[in-house]
Amino acid sequence: KQALDCAKLGYGSTYPNPAVGCVIVQSSEEEGDVILGRGFHPKSGMPHAEIFALLEAAGHVEDGIQAASSVLVKTTNQDDDDEAGKELSKKVHSLLQTYIQPEGAKQLFSDIFKNDDTKTTTAYVTLEPCCHTNKQTPPCASTFLLASIDRVVVGYRDPNPYVDGGGVSVMRSNDVTVDVLNANVPIAQECSNLVRYFAKRITSPVVLNGGSSDGVENINGKKKRFLRSLAGRMKRDGSLVEIEWTGSGNNNLSSTTDADEAGDIDWEKVTSEIILNIPPSPQWVTHVDANLWDHELVLLRLGNIISKKKGVKVLGETLVNTYLKGSTIVQVVGHTVLLYRPKFPKPVITFEE
Fold first, then answer.
1. What is the pTM for the complete model shown?
2. Catalytically annotated residue among 30, 50, 190, 352
3. Quick one: which of 152, 148, 105, 109 has its CA closest to 128?
4. Looking at domain 2-201, which of 3.30.390.30, 3.40.140.10, 2.102.10.10, 3.40.50.720 is its CATH number?
5. For 169-198, how does the pLDDT look when each residue is reduced to its tens digit (9 = 90+)?
6. Other CB atoms closer than 10 Å to residue 118's CB: what's the count?
7. Most buried of 18, 266, 300, 302, CB within 10 angstroms?
8. What range(s) does the CRM domain occupy (predicted)?
9. For residues 67 and 92, is the Cβ–Cβ distance under 8 A?
C-alpha cells in the first residue's frame, strides 16, 4: 500500500514510462519492521523508483521521496531562498550521474543489505523490476542483486516485452525470494490499474506496427468520413472529449499572416521549435493518451499555441508521430485536430459498411 502511494506521486509525470513506487523494509525479531527507503519514478530518462529507495537505504540521501521530487523541479525555478532545495537537486543529479556509469551501481549500493541471518530486507515494488539494458539507466533487478536484497514483493508483472517476467527470473536465479501478488488480490489490481495505459501502449498492435498520422492500418477515406460524422454527432450531444493545449508560450512561433500567405513559412521547422521550446507536458500527453484509449475519438484544440491551419496540421502530425503513436488524424478544422485510435484489446467504434 505504501509503495502504491509512492507510485501515485509520479503519475502523470513519467510518460511514456509507467508510474512505479518502491518501499524497502528491514525485518528482525528484535526491531520488527523498519522502513529503510522509499522512492518513486519521477520522469522518463531518470532512474526508477527502486533506485531512489536504495539511495535512501544506503544513506546517500535522507529521503528518497524528496530526492525523486527534486528531479521534477528545475533549479532555475526554485526560490532564491531555497538553498536546501538547490543543494539537494545538485546532490541527486551528481548521484544519478554516478549511478549510470559502468561501475556506478556497484559503487553506490554494493552489499548494503548484507547482514546476519537475524535480519531480512524486503523491497515492495508496484511493478516488476526491469532487467533490460537498452535504456539510459542500469537494470533495477541487477542493482537489487548488487545490494544483496533478500526478498522482493512485486505488485504486477511488467507487460513490457523487454521484461515480462525477466526481472523475476534474474532475481530468483540468484537466490532472491520473489513473490508476485495474485492478480485477484485488490492491491495487485490497484498496481495493474496504475499502469493500464502503459500496458496498452507497449502491447497494442496498432502502436507496435507503427500507426502514424498517415493513417492507422485500414482507416481509409470512407472510414474517416464515418468518424468525422460520428464526431459531429458526439459534439452535438456533448459526449466528444475535447482537450486544449496547455503549454505556455507565444504564438509568434507561428510567424506572420503575410509570410504565410506568401508561402514563406516552413511549418515543419515551426512545429519543431514548438516541441523543442514548449514541449507538451507529460501530464498533458498522459491525459490525451488515456482519453484516446478510453474514448477512441479526441478533439485537440491547438489555437493557443499556433495560429494557422497549416501549422495546426503539421503540429498534429508531430504529436501523433512523437507522442501519441498508433493514433491517426481524421480531420483538421480551424485550430482543431480530430484524432482516432482504436481501443485495445477490443475497439468500441464499429464502422458501417
1. 0.86
2. 50
3. 152
4. 3.40.140.10
5. 999 999 999 999 999 999 999 999 999 999
6. 10
7. 18
8. 217-352
9. yes
- Judge contact between 126 and 152, C-beta under 8 A: no
Residue whose C-alpha is closest to residue 315's, from 247, 256, 240, 225: 247
What DSSP state is assigned to residue 75?
G
Contact 286, 335 (CB under 8 A): no
Q: Is the bond preceding 16 in cis, omega lying within 30 degrees of 0?
A: yes
| Catalytic-residue membership of 296 | no
CATH 3.40.140.10 domain range(s) in the chain: 2-201
Pairing of strands 241-244, 336-340: unpaired
Q: What DSSP assignment string belongs to 240-253?
A: SEEEE------GGG
User: What is the pLDDT of the chain when averaged over all its residues?
Assistant: 86
Contact between residue 254 and residue 293 where contact means Cβ atoms under 8 Å apart: no
Distance of CA 352 to the CA centre of its chain: 35
Element (H, E) at 166: helix 166-172
Kindly state the cell numbers that stand for 312: 495546426
Phi, psi of 186 (to 5 degrees): -50, -40
First to last CA, the chain: 49
The answer to whether 50 and 68 are in contact (CB under 8 A) is no
